[in-house]
Amino acid sequence: MRPIDEQVILVTGATDGLGRGVATQVASQGATVLLHGRDDARGAAAIDEIRAATGNDKLRWYRADLASLDDVRALADQVLASEPRLDVLLNNAGIGGTLPGDGVRMTSADGYELRFQVNYLAPYLLTQLLLPLLERSAPARIVNVASAGQAPLDFDDVMLERRYDPWTAYQQSKLAQITFTFDLADELADKDVTVTTLHPGTFMPTKMVTHAGIAPATSLESGIAATTRLVVDPSLDGVTGRYFDGTRESRAHPQASDDKARRQLRDLSDQLAGLA
Predict the structure, then answer these.
(1) Is 228 helix (H, G, I), strand (E, B) or coil?
(2) Residue 260 pLDDT exceeds 60
(3) Are 58 and 33 in contact (CB under 8 A)?
(4) Order of strands across the sheet with 88-91?
(5) Backbone angles phi, psi at 149, to 5 degrees
(6) Angle of helix 17-28 relative to helix 40-54, nearest 10 degrees?
(7) Residues with Cβ < 8 Å from 25, sequence gap 6 or more?
(8) I need a surface site. Which of 57, 83, 155, 172 has the fewest CB within 10 A?
(9) Cα maximum dimension of the chain
(10) Residue 13 pLDDT > 70, yes or no?
(11) Is the pLDDT at 217 greater than 80, yes or no?
(12) What letter would DSSP give residue 4?
């Protein structure tokens, strides 16, 4: 990878929590940081505070609601039109089991189960649309923030219309993210674009955890450090198709490595995202 002060890094979900922390860390090292969120006022506040904390003026804002695939397409179009290069895409934005909805099944603007779309399908589409820019900028990295909470997808009821449980929805979306990581890493093996994924920490004190009334078990700082490592650590140049628990390489649920499941998920994702 290029020196960090020459890199352009897109962080989704950058207005609070883990994404805000990683954006601050890479900004402090001199990177150009593209901050994504869904609220312009919060975006402006985040940029002002990161600029004040780091002295870095190379900060740009991109708004999109991942519950709308049209917004995702518009986000990709804006990045492609405005940015001559992209060294790292960090797919961090996501929602937990209870926020929003407090356990009630919700659907996106596109009619898909909300957690599947926001946590998986939207970053899948964004990644696919930004791949040409990442490949032109190679060496480049894609980092997906997943979870140790993983549940296999039921391809007969991916949207959990028959029997809904919010935590199952969350865990399915995170395993889909890991499965996509492994699949894309193989696809890009000769493109000098690496793809990794991680569980940053267990019940970090983020908005989704505190709203659920769960006592934090891992500090936010350790999650920020583990995620930032995958984004910028030079020792990870060329490391791809790996899942990490914090900073330790680990094993994901077996479905993520199942060739049939990977093909099914790829085909389904292309169909749902309008890429087929």
Answers:
(1) helix
(2) yes
(3) yes
(4) 59-63, 32-37, 8-11, 88-91, 140-145, 193-199, 242-245, 248-250
(5) -80, 105
(6) 40
(7) 224, 225, 228
(8) 57
(9) 52
(10) yes
(11) no
(12) G
pTM: 0.94
CB contact set of 220 (below 8 Å; sequence gap of 6+): 17, 18, 21, 201, 204, 205, 206
Residues above pLDDT 90, as percent of the chain:
89
**Minimal CA–CA distance to 66: which of 100, 18, 20?**
100
Residue 63 pLDDT exceeds 90: yes
Domains of the chain, CATH where assigned: 4-273 (3.40.50.720)
E-strand ranges in the chain read: 8-11, 32-37, 59-63, 88-91, 140-145, 193-199, 242-245, 248-250
| Cα separation, 1 vs 80, whole angstroms | 21
Does residue 164 carry a catalytic annotation?
no
How confident is the model over 103-123, as a mean pLDDT? Answer: 97
d(CA 245, CA 178): 12
Compute the distance between CA of residue 200 and CA of residue 228 in angstroms, rounded to an integer.
10
* Catalytic one of 62, 112, 120, 170: 170
Under a CB-based contact definition with an 8 Å cutoff, are residues 228 and 241 in contact?
A: no
**DSSP H helix total and E strand total for the chain:** 9, 8
pLDDT tens-digit map of 17-45:
999 999 999 999 999 999 999 999 999 99
